[in-house]
Amino acid sequence: MGGDVERPQRSVSALQMSGRHHWPVTLRHGPVRLAPMRTRDRADWERVRRANASWLRPWEATLPPGGHAGPATYAGLVRTLSRQAREGRMLPWLVFWDGDGRGRPQLAGQLTVSGIVGGSAAWGQIGYWVDERLAGRGIIPTAVALAVDYCFEVMHLHRIEIAIRPENDKSLRVVTKLGFRPEGLRPRYLHIDGDWRDHLVFALNAEEVPGGLLQRWESLRPR
User: Fold this and answer.
1) Strand 32-36 relative to strand 25-29, pairing
2) For residue range 117-131, what is the model confidence (pLDDT) as tens digits?
């Protein structure tokens, strides 16, 4: 079992983001909840990943030739990511959704803030995926907005960027809805689906969303 299992978890609503970063932390807004990856979520995570294998394959990171393989098991992955999260280098969240009226949140996807750097850079990068059955319900835009606000307001980062393959129309709609600023093309930027792929880069600086990204998203999203 991962060493994170027994740690008390802090739950933060969209209106309570303040203070010092301390992992693990859960963020929530309406039916959307970001919760740290836990070993007990393995069965649900593996089930959703299997069901979405073909849906996710074109956008999934892969190992380039000569690359170092990561953890071989879900428990190992949780331990590795949780350690990096406690060190402030990464925020590995699962995305849960409770919008179907059944009263039990279901695993909807995953969102990770990676490459977190402090000092004069103060930036990080967000990646995400969503269960195909739940796409188009505003779950991921809400999750991204929650994560961005946490990074700006609690971790005091200055810049968040998202890199997306030009062919990924659905993911491009997420950053468009949230008002991320396009910064152009990075050729052969990440190893995805077996090869180095071009990516479009989108970014936000903290001063561009003085009232918070979640507040802006809620004011713009269709009702």
Assistant:
1) antiparallel
2) 999 999 999 999 999
Structure tokens at 19: 């203070």
Contact 114, 107 (CB under 8 A): no
Number of Cβ atoms within 10 Å of the Cβ of 167? 11
Longest dimension (CA), the chain: 48
Q: How many CA atoms lie within 13 A of 185 on its CB side?
A: 7
190 forms bridges with which residues in the sheet? 197
Query: What CATH number was assigned to the domain covering residues 10-220?
Result: 3.40.630.30
Q: Residue 83: what are its φ and ψ, rounded to 5°?
A: -65, -45
Beta-bridge partner residues of 106: 97
CA distance 1 to 23: 17
Strands in 159-164's sheet, in edge-to-edge order, are 10-13, 25-29, 32-36, 91-97, 106-117, 123-130, 159-164, 195-205, 181-192
- Tell me the one-letter amino acid at 155: M
The SS3 of residue 180 is coil
Pairing mode of beta strands 91-97, 106-117:
antiparallel
Q: What is the pLDDT of residues 183-203, one digit of tens each?
A: 999 999 999 999 999 999 999
Opening angle at CA 170, ends 169 and 173, nearest 5? 85
Distances (CA, A) of 2 to 5, 9, 22, 81, 88: 6, 15, 18, 10, 18
Q: Token pair of 169, please?
A: 């129309």
Structure tokens at 156: 């005091």
